[in-house]
Design brief:
There is one protein chain. This protein has 133 residues and is α+β, with helices and mostly antiparallel strands. Helices cover 27% and strands 33% of the residues. A hairpin with a 6-residue loop joins strand 4 (97-107) and strand 5.
């Protein structure tokens, strides 16, 4: 199976992930892996710095979308991300503290031109206060 995007939404999503990867790298993060898949879902970007292993969800929307990109990361999506991250950490143990970030990429309507990017660090945690790991 090819990882090549097939639909317009997949093409835009991959473009947003490419933009987010470059942005996070410029901020000094070391991108470890992109598009980590499990039966629970996918983590768009896994990165690290000296303190955290970062599981980043990238949401790309056009500038006239009805909601901000991060609003699409609902509780159900957060749970899937946490379960997927737990599997990654079981396979790749680390002493780094896990963190969940959201990167909002906003593109001009009808094009792939970047309008804005917003990196939300520690965007969500498990509600019951316990780590998902």
């Amino acid at each position: 199976m090819s990882d090549k995007p097939k639909t317009a939404a997949q093409i835009i999503g991959k473009h947003g992930e490419d933009i987010a990867t470059g942005y996070l790298t410029k901020k000094g993060l070391n991108v470890i892996l992109r598009n980590f898949h499990t039966r629970y879902g996918e983590i768009d970007i896994i990165a690290r710095d000296s303190q955290y292993i970062i599981f980043a969800e990238v949401k790309t929307r056009n500038e006239f979308a009805i909601a901000t990109p991060s609003e699409w990361v609902d509780k159900r999506k957060q749970k899937k991300l946490m379960m997927t991250a737990a599997i990654y950490l079981q396979k790749n143990p680390t002493d780094l503290q896990p963190r969940f970030d959201v990167v909002e990429v906003v593109l001009a309507k009808g094009s792939q031109e970047l309008v804005s990017i917003n990196h939300i660090e520690n965007a969500f945690i498990q509600e019951d206060g316990y780590a998902a790991f």
